[in-house]
Amino acid sequence: MNQQRPNSPRTLQAIEAVLLLLASIFFILHVFHLNADFPNHSPWMDWAKYTDEGWYGDGAIRHFQRGHWYVPGDFNPAAALPVWPLLEAALFRFTGVNLVAARALTVGIFGLILATSYLLLRRWQNLSTLDISAPDRDKRKGQTTLAPAIAVLLLAVSPFCYVFTRLAILEPLLILLTLLALLVASYVTVRQGSSIPIRGRLRQMIPILALGLILPLMVLTKTTAVFLIPAIAWILWARVEYSIRPFLGVGIPIIALAAVIWLAYYGFVVRPHFLDDYRYLFSANGYTGMTPSTALSVLGDTIADGLWIGNILYPLGLLAAGSALFLRPRLLRNPLIPSLLLWAAGYAVFLAYHNNLQPRYYLVIAIPLTLLIPVVFSSLWEPFTPRPSNSVRNPLRGLVAASITVALTVLTVADARQTLHYVRNPDYTFTTAAAQIHQIVAADRTHNPLILSISGSNLSLMTGLPSICDDFGTMDLAVRVQAYHPGWYVAWNQVDDDKMDALAPMYHLQRVAAFPAMDDPERNLLILYRLDPAIPGTPPRRRRKPVIPRLLQTNFGQQPSQIQLEH
């Protein structure tokens, strides 16, 4: 009886099953400790963990807590970005407003990202057949390739993906919609002729209609989605065999439907009711730190900061991209590879232009770079890839394959250990502080429970307390304070001068409590002030530096456990 070859389909299927099982286990770990802090003492100092979960879900949070989603003059991003709060609202109808439900929704979206990534790579799995004859290519169609399973495992064990796909922020949904758009685009066909039955024509229209719907959903999830459209267009371009007329034949209906949907939302919802809020979102973010004199340094920072994705994963992703572009350009015949390159490059252009290099933005780049690694290098793995007839083993190619395999193994083990560390060591400093604030505010019947804070929306999500933002809004802060009369102010580490100027005419700030929370040196002490009526003739106290009790003074990476109350 002949011994089974190590590269037989059954062996490949078994290896794939093991890889997917490991990925599933690590995905399940995302569900644990959903109300824990963003991991303290991590490499990623991103202020989104203090604000964005509340800001971009505020429409849903306020709808259930106040009975209306819109607060005139305050920060209302749902006017321009309604998709995420609508999803959260659908969930909160069953779960109620709470942090765990919002984060569970994001984790579910990450699960769909893994599944869609697998399906997308399986759809374009014939990369390893480019260099062989047509008969051999036909024989190998449908055979198992490990690239999709490896990509899913790399994403599932990634600590970078772990920390940011557990936050209820916009980027995971944008990634999922982009992957769905690429997958749907891969099914577009352009068969023409009177002999095509009606059912066949309807089937041809389904992916076109689906793309016409997905594109505006992407833009209404996060406006930076426009930088990802070239990646989708490339798949369409490849599906019509790189011909202009068929490309226009499928592209124009897609763009027309997408434009109709977006214009309908803008014309019937935004323009008559929320135009100021819509414009404000762009004006608040409509800046760039890039100038002709700083362009090179900004571009260098944009590339260097990609190491947030991973000290091994990111260089491997760049190596895969460089290999496809310069060393083996024939790989570009696989339409998925140029599409992923356009995805990563397009969003990198946005990052460089915006020059606000927050780690969470790199999550959108991490996905295509991670998918590129197994797709580009899969043709090198001779021990795990069925070899065409009459092929000659190349020692150099084997050495490269072995090196890549070792690098991926080291990467997977290192990432898995770091992710497991975060799973086993959750912190609850922010949620504990929020609970204490809720207790103090709820016990005081003499003051309006409305909280003024840059993290107010997050506190609303965690505690149910109403809030307005002290930093963003279409009204000046002083006007907003006079309009809404908040009873409490929550600051990080200190009260800035501009906040004191807005509050002092009406209020005397009475410091009530301080809570060590999080690990950012600029935001590691959450201070609760009660807003008492101002005493006439009393000048405002300005604090340019944080005044922190000695017991609460901390260095970066050292968080005390005690809570200091002041009366």
Report on the structure:
- By secondary structure, this protein is of the alpha/beta class.
- Helix content is 56%, strand content 6%.
- It is built from 22 helices and six strands.
- A six-stranded mixed β-sheet has the order 2-1-3-5-4-6, covered by helices on one side.
- The longest helix has 30 residues, at 244-273.
- The protein is globular.
- The model is unreliable at 127-140, 382-392 and 544-567 (pLDDT under 50).
Q: Using the alpha-carbon principal axes, give the shape.
A: globular
Strand content: 5-15%
| Strands in their spatial order, largest beta sheet | 2-1-3-5-4-6
Q: Helix coverage percent of residues?
A: 55-70%
Give the averaged pLDDT, no decimals: 86
List how many beta strands DSSP finds.
6
Poorly predicted tracts of residues: 127-140, 382-392, 544-567
Q: Could you give the order of the helices and strands?
A: HHHHHHHHHHHHHHHHHHHEHEHEHEEE
Instruction: Round the Cα radius of gyration to an integer and report it.
Output: 26 Å
